[in-house]
TrEMBL record:
InterPro entries: HAMP_dom (IPR003660), HATPase_C_sf (IPR036890), HATPase_dom (IPR003594), His_kinase_dom (IPR005467), HisK_dim/P_dom (IPR003661), HisK_dim/P_sf (IPR036097), Sig_transdc_His_kin-like_C (IPR004358), TCS_sensor_his_kinase (IPR050428). Keywords: Kinase, Membrane, Phosphoprotein, Transferase, Transmembrane, Transmembrane helix, Two-component regulatory system. The keyword Transferase applies. It is found in: Membrane. Residues 93-299 form the Histidine kinase domain. The keyword DNA-binding does not apply. GO terms for molecular function: phosphorelay sensor kinase activity. GO terms for cellular component: plasma membrane. Residues 32-85 form the HAMP domain. Its main location: membrane. Its EC number is 2.7.13.3. The chain crosses the membrane at residues 12-31. This is histidine kinase.
Length: 299
C-alpha cells in the first residue's frame, strides 16, 4: 500500500512539474506573440521621433486588442500628418491672403507721395481707404491666427448691420483695387442683427474670390436681398467634385492651386456665417461662372 501511495506521489509531482513547464512554455509563446507587434510599434514610434517622418507605415496585423492598438496608432499618425501639412501650407501661403490689403496700402501711399496735385476730396478718400485697409489687415491677421489654432473667439458686440451699405462699401473698395466693374443690386429689407466686422470680412472674401477666378475685364454681380448675399462671377465655374469642399479650411482644387491664396478665404466666410446661424452655398451659373454666397436668418 505504501508503495502505491509513493508511486502516486511521484506521478503527481511529475505531472505538476510538466504542467508548470507546459504553462510556462505556453505563456512564453503567447507573450512572444503579443510582444512582437508591440515591439514593432515601439520601433516605429522611435523611428518617427528620430526622423520626424509621419509617412512611415505602421504594422497592423490580426484582429485582437494589439491590432486595435496598431490601428489607433496609424490613425493618430495620419491625423498628425494632415495637421502638419495644413500648418506648413498656412505658413507658406498666408502671405497671399495678406497681399490684397498690403497692395492697396502701397498703391494709395505711393499715390499720395508722388502726386501733390491730388484734389482734396480724392486725397481724403484715399486716406480713408488706407485706414480701412489697415483695419482689414489687422482683422485678417487675427482671423488667420484664430483659424490656425482652432480657437476662434470674438469680442465684437452684436448690433444692427445694414448689409446693403456694407456690401456697397466692399464693392467700392474692390473697384478701386482691381479696376473691375462690380454691380450691386438691392432686393430690399437689408438690416439684420449681426457682427459687422465678421460680415465685412465675409463679403470681402466673396468678392475677392470672384475677382481672383474671373477673366480680366469681366464684371462681378452682387445681389443683396434681406440676409442673403450672392456674388456672381464669369470665370470657369467650379468642378462638381469640388463644390462640397470649397468652404473647408485649406481646401484648394487642382485647378485653383496655381492661383495665389491659402484656401482660407471661403473658410473664413463659412466661419462668419456659422456664427450668425446662417448657411453658405456655391453653385455654377447656367450660362457659365459661379455663384457663391450666404443666407442669414432675418430678424
Amino acid at each position: 500500500m505504501e508503495d502505491v501511495l509513493s508511486g502516486m506521489r511521484i506521478r503527481l509531482l511529475l505531472a505538476g512539474i510538466f504542467a508548470t513547464l507546459g504553462a510556462w512554455v505556453l505563456g512564453w509563446l503567447i507573450a512572444g506573440r503579443i510582444a512582437k507587434p508591440i515591439r514593432k510599434l515601439s520601433a516605429v514610434a522611435s523611428e518617427v521621433a528620430t526622423s520626424r517622418d509621419l509617412s512611415i507605415a505602421v504594422p497592423v496585423n490580426g484582429t485582437g486588442e494589439v491590432s486595435e492598438l496598431g490601428r489607433s496608432f496609424s490613425s493618430m499618425m495620419n491625423a498628425l500628418s494632415t495637421s502638419l501639412e495644413q500648418q506648413q501650407r498656412l505658413v507658406s501661403d498666408a502671405s497671399h491672403e495678406l497681399r490684397t490689403p498690403l497692395t492697396a496700402l502701397r498703391t494709395n501711399i505711393e499715390s499720395l507721395e508722388l502726386f501733390d496735385a491730388i484734389p482734396e476730396a480724392e486725397r481724403r478718400e484715399m486716406i480713408r481707404d488706407i485706414r480701412l485697409e489697415v483695419e482689414e489687415l489687422s482683422t485678417l491677421t487675427a482671423e488667420l491666427v484664430d483659424l490656425a489654432t482652432d480657437q476662434v473667439q470674438s469680442a465684437e458686440q452684436i448690433g444692427t448691420v445694414d448689409l446693403l451699405a456694407l456690401t456697397r462699401d466692399v464693392a467700392q473698395r474692390a473697384r478701386r483695387r482691381s479696376g473691375r466693374t462690380i454691380d450691386v443690386s438691392d432686393g430690399g429689407g437689408n438690416s439684420i442683427d449681426g457682427f459687422s466686422n465678421q460680415l465685412l470680412r465675409a463679403v470681402s472674401n466673396l468678392v475677392d474670390n470672384a475677382i481672383k477666378y474671373s477673366p480680366a475685364g469681366s464684371s462681378i454681380e452682387i445681389s443683396v436681398d434681406g440676409g442673403s448675399v450672392r456674388v456672381r462671377d464669369h470665370g470657369p465655374g467650379i468642378a462638381e467634385k469640388d463644390l462640397p469642399h470649397i468652404f473647408e479650411r485649406f481646401y484648394r482644387s487642382i485647378d485653383a492651386r496655381s492661383a495665389p491664396g491659402s484656401g482660407l478665404g471661403l473658410a473664413i466666410v463659412a466661419d462668419a456665417v456659422m456664427r450668425h446661424q446662417g448657411k453658405v452655398f456655391a453653385a455654377n451659373a447656367p450660362d457659365g461662372g459661379a455663384i457663391v454666397g450666404f443666407d442669414l436668418p432675418e430678424p
